[in-house]
């Protein structure tokens, strides 16, 4: 396939590099000049459990430099950048182009549908780890999976084609009609750990210092999954809480991405995680006090960091 990866950070570079190794025509699109230049001059350095190598059979460029109409656009930007990123590559999305989102949070399908019909949108979730350790240099150690489906829920042949391509690239991909379950459970996991760590500036394992840490995390999980059930999504609270507890027990020293964003002075994905849950909860008249309070705290942290108190940010 001809594949364009929009958002070539750690995850986008990992997926793009592995797909290029399998012979697909891959273009990485990003705005990180140093990262692009390193790939252009030396190839993508990809260090996995299997080997440490340079992948040269792929292109890296800015959005305005990308050309041609790909079969697949793979979106890996943060949710808050989805609209602007897709606007920047709108000239690449043809009438037969499919768009796959493996992003965190909620609301991505709604944004993508402004550029592609629902039947050409694929939605998925992945657990693969990846870290951008320097320009053109990505580490990925450990295992993961990808689960995806057509956003309209129909059994479409191209979905199986994409799943096969990702699977053959070593990304352990399956077509799964229960992707929304995985998405909401991941939202619950992130709403708990990301927002609590960002509000407290604790690492994940430090949440286990007192019983209040896990208790608060489990409260958020319960609230988020109650909203998911109101949306008609089947979820598994005990399994989700077990993953949260396992992370608190084992992710020693880990700073979630939302905390890393705050420490680096970047905007976070709080609106597409806790914010989206609070909005959906309001539509169903479901109280989510813990999730709402953490949203408000992280908003305050961001406003303080920006040196402003933005108007119109009151939650109704």
Automatic annotation (TrEMBL):
EC number: 1.1.1.169
Alphabetical list of InterPro entries matching this protein: 6-PGluconate_DH-like_C_sf (IPR008927), 6PGD_dom2 (IPR013328), ApbA (IPR003710), Ketopantoate_reductase (IPR050838), KPA_reductase (IPR013752), KPR_N (IPR013332), NAD(P)-bd_dom_sf (IPR036291)
Catalytic activity, as annotated: (R)-pantoate + NADP(+) = 2-dehydropantoate + NADPH + H(+)
Pathway it works in: Cofactor biosynthesis; (R)-pantothenate biosynthesis; (R)-pantoate from 3-methyl-2-oxobutanoate: step 2/2
One Gene Ontology cellular component: cytoplasm
Keyword terms, alphabetized: NADP, Oxidoreductase, Pantothenate biosynthesis
EC top class named in words: oxidoreductase
Superkingdom per UniProt: Bacteria
Protein's UniProt keywords contain Oxidoreductase: yes
Single GO term (MF): NADP binding
GO process annotations (BP): pantothenate biosynthetic process
Chain ranges of the Ketopantoate reductase C-terminal domain: 180-301
Ketopantoate reductase N-terminal domain location: 3-148
PANTHER family: 2-DEHYDROPANTOATE 2-REDUCTASE, 2-DEHYDROPANTOATE 2-REDUCTASE-RELATED
General function of this protein: Catalyzes the NADPH-dependent reduction of ketopantoate into pantoic acid.
Family of the protein in this entry: Belongs to the ketopantoate reductase family.
Name under which the protein is recorded: 2-dehydropantoate 2-reductase
Organism classification: Bacteria, Pseudomonadati, Pseudomonadota, Betaproteobacteria, Burkholderiales
């Amino acid at each position: 396939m001809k594949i364009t990866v929009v958002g070539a950070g750690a995850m986008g570079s990992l997926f793009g590099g592995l797909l290029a190794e399998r012979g697909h025509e891959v273009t990485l699109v990003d705005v990180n000049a140093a990262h692009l230049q390193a790939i252009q001059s030396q190839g993508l350095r990809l260090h996995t459990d299997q080997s440490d190598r340079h992948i040269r059979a792929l292109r890296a460029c800015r959005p305005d430099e990308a050309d041609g109409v790909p079969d697949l656009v793979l979106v890996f930007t943060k949710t808050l950048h989805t609209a602007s990123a897709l606007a920047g590559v709108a000239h690449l999305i043809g009438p037969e182009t499919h768009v796959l989102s493996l992003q965190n949070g909620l609301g991505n399908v709604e944004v993508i549908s402004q550029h592609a019909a629902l039947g050409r949108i694929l939605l998925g979730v992945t657990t693969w780890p990846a870290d951008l350790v320097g320009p053109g240099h990505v580490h990925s150690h450990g295992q993961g999976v990808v689960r995806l489906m057509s956003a309209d829920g129909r059994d479409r042949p191209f979905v199986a084609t994409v799943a096969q391509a990702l699977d053959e690239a070593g990304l352990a991909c399956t077509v799964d009609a229960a992707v929304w379950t995985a998405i909401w459970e991941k939202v619950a996991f992130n709403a708990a750990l990301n927002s609590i760590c960002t509000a407290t500036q604790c690492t994940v394992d430090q949440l286990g210092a007192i019983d209040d840490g896990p208790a608060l995390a489990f409260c958020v999980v319960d609230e988020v999954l109650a909203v998911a059930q109101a949306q008609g999504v089947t979820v598994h609270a005990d399994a989700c809480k077990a993953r949260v507890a396992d992370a608190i027990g084992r992710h020693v020293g880990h700073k979630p991405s939302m905390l890393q964003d705050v420490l680096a002075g970047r905007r976070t994905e709080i609106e597409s995680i806790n914010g989206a849950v609070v909005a959906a909860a309001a539509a169903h008249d479901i109280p989510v006090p813990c999730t709402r309070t953490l949203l408000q705290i992280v908003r305050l942290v961001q406003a303080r960091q920006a040196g402003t108190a933005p108007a119109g940010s009151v939650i109704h």
